[in-house]
Amino acid sequence: MARGLLWATAEHIAFNRGKVVSIYRQLLRSLNSPDLPLTLAARLAKKAEVRAIFLLAAEERALHNIHDLLDIADYSLSLLRRGEIPKYIQ
């Protein structure tokens, strides 16, 4: 990928697609963890929030914002695996 570009090209989007889909699925699976203190209704609501966040983020075209969103998703996934609920979906 070329350096100095500000906006995502089709190449950038295709490059990140697999990682985004993987993180999305892992986040949804992690919300089913029995370690989280959530009821069924709360789990479904959190999953809907994750879906909404990913739908809004899909419109992002600035490279630095895309990288930030992927970093945030990785961090949130690590919190969920420890049994904590990330603040942005509380």
Number of strands: 0
Tell me the number of helical segments per DSSP (H or I, 4 or more residues long). Answer: 3
User: How much helicity do the residues have?
Assistant: 55-70%
Would you tell me the overall average pLDDT? Answer: 85
Oligomer class: single chain
- Write down the Rg: 14 Å
Shape: elongated
- SSE run: HHH
Helix/sheet category: mainly alpha
Taking the sheet with the most strands, its summary is: none
Low-confidence stretches: none
Distance between the termini: 36 Å
Strand-residue proportion: under 5%
Q: Which key terms come to mind for this protein?
A:
elongated; 90 residues; mainly alpha; single chain; 3 helices; 0% strand
Explain this structure to me?
With about 90 residues, the chain is mostly helical. Helices cover about 65% and strands about 0% of the residues. It is built from 3 helices and no strands. The protein has helices at about 10-30, 40-55, 65-80.
Present the secondary structure layout:
Elements: H1 10-30, H2 40-57, H3 63-81
Helix pairs in contact: 1-3
